[in-house]
Write a structure and sequence with these properties.
The chain is mainly beta. It has one helix at 32-38; strands at 5-9, 16-20, 25-29, 43-49, 53-56, 60-65, 71-76, 83-86, 94-98, 112-114, 131-132.
Length: 138
């Protein structure tokens, strides 16, 4: 059986990634920060261990207070401003890939929703989402 392989990047192609193996999580985040960052009702996300992902290109970093304390770091393309991933290269032990940046969007199969308490009524839960958390799971 072939190992899962995910590729993607920004709108202009200057910031890219390649991930190998199955993601730790696939889901939707409905927190206010993700809604503002995406300009939508949620951010579709995938989580990978740092050892499974490689980034190519330079990112522009935006940091904001995280809901669980600490800092949330989002990475954008400095050319086209597309949001691509979360985490700090060289420091984070895992990274969040924003599923809208996938080259093949059919690879995204969400199974969980986090911060459901902030979900707008118009942001539907997909039928594949079976784990719904009102906040961040502990």
């Amino acid at each position: 059986m072939n190992e899962a392989h995910y590729t993607g990047g920004c709108l202009c192609g200057a910031l890219r990634y390649e991930a190998k193996g199955a993601p730790s999580f696939m889901g939707h985040c409905y927190c206010g920060d993700c809604r503002k960052a995406s300009g939508s009702g949620f951010i579709p996300f995938m989580s990978f261990p740092a050892s499974a992902i490689r980034f190519m290109g330079t990112s522009k970093i935006f940091e904001a207070p995280a809901l669980r304390g600490g800092v949330s770091t989002r990475n954008f393309c400095p050319n086209c401003s597309s949001i691509v991933f979360g985490g700090i290269i060289g420091k984070s032990d895992s990274f969040t890939i924003y599923a809208g940046s996938l080259d093949d969007p059919t690879q995204f199969k969400p199974t969980m929703a986090i911060f459901n308490h902030g979900r707008p009524d118009w942001a539907m839960l997909p039928a594949s989402v079976t784990a719904v958390f009102e906040k961040m799971p502990g």
